[in-house]
Amino acid sequence: MANCFAKSKGTCRKKLNHLFKFKIIIMQKITPFLWFDGKAEEAIKLYTSLFKNSKIIKISYWGEGSPFPKDQVMNGVFELDGQKFYAFDAGPQFKFTEAISLYVSCETQEEIDHFWNGFINNGGQESMCGWLKDKFGLSWQIVPPVLGQMLGDKDKAKAGRVMQAMMQMKKISIADLKKAYNG
User: Fold this and answer.
1) Residue 24 has pLDDT above 60, yes or no
2) Per-residue pLDDT for 16 more than 50?
3) What's the distance, CA 14 to chain centroid?
4) Which residue in 51, 56, 179, 161 sits closest to 105, CA to CA?
5) Which of 12, 116, 132, 180 qualifies as a cystine partner to 4, CB 3.0-4.6 A?
6) Are 74 and 61 a contacting pair, CB within 8 Å?
7) Strands 131-133, 125-126: pairing kind
8) How far apart are the first and last CA of the chain?
9) C-alpha 173: how far from chain center
10) Which of 95, 87, 99 is closest to 32 using CA atoms?
11) The sheet that has 139-143: what strands, in order across it?
């Protein structure tokens, strides 16, 4: 870049535009990096369709001469409600496990239902206690903040009843949590 200005203005402008575009894509300090097996583009489209304030920032394809189909996503950058993610599509070597999950804080039952049904109705699998696995194998927790507040209550009997109620649920029901909390 130092001798950019020694070259033509057009060449310099191209380099600056490239750097500017790259800067827009640069991640926040910590960015989830998700490895997919041929399904990154489908995942990106599903995720950005479910979350408000979401967008696909950039998708690159493998192209000719790569070990993958030329029209398969190599990588993609997308944003879910302001959080950037990086998707990589490079084969079956690595799989998602429940050891990592994405936690979605939902204020209302309507919001819980939106995400839960969005994932489940698109090939996901229910688990327990507000957890599910999407069709790509990524685990999500669809949980209201009130759950943590109730479980952390100083009244151990209330907290215990909430824990017992939650342990019976797949999708979290705020009404059922409140019922257990109030005894």
Assistant:
1) no
2) no
3) 33
4) 51
5) 12
6) yes
7) antiparallel
8) 68
9) 22
10) 87
11) 101-105, 139-143, 131-133, 125-126
Nearest to 75 by CA among 92, 87, 65: 87
Domains belonging to the chain, first-starting first, are 28-94 (3.30.720.100), 96-183 (3.10.180.10)
C-alpha span between 93 and 35 (Å, rounded): 9
Contact 140, 64 (CB under 8 A): no
Task: Output Rg (C-alpha) for the chain, integer angstroms.
Answer: 22
φ, ψ (nearest 5 deg) of residue 30:
-125, 125
Selection from 169, 180, 171, 118 nearest residue 142 by Cα: 171
Task: Indicate the DSSP class of residue 5.
Answer: G
As a whole-number percent, the residues of the chain with pLDDT over 70 amount to 85
pLDDT(15) > 80: no
Six-digit token string for 1 = 């870049």
SS3 assignment, position 74: strand
Digit-coded pLDDT (tens) for 106-119: 999 999 999 999 99
